[in-house]
Amino acid sequence: MESETHLLTSWCRFHFYIADFGWGDHIWVSPVNPFKNVLVLMDTKNGEGIEAWVTLDAEDMAKFETDPELLAYARANHCFISENSELCLKPTEPLS
């Protein structure tokens, strides 16, 4: 019998955006995760939301990103740096 391990951790309320490295305000904070089957929750910069950093294999990620039950509460926002960045892949439908 084969089993998979999944890791879930919350970094919410760790105040990453308050840390002062002497370089000015943070633009964005993110975890670095080379492992699959990991979910990291973090506060957004403005503190009004939560980012979920999810790493799955390609087949599972394709299912995860299109799951209707998940999309009723969240959206995939493949946005790096800022929402105005050219690196953003905007969701096609607004979150209702």
TrEMBL record:
Domain of life per record: Eukaryota
GO MF terms, alphabetically ordered: acyltransferase activity
Keywords of this entry: Acyltransferase, Transferase
Pfam families: Transferase
InterPro entries: CAT-like_dom_sf
Protein family (similarity comment): Belongs to the plant acyltransferase family.
Protein's UniProt name: Uncharacterized protein
Organism for this UniProt entry: Coptis chinensis
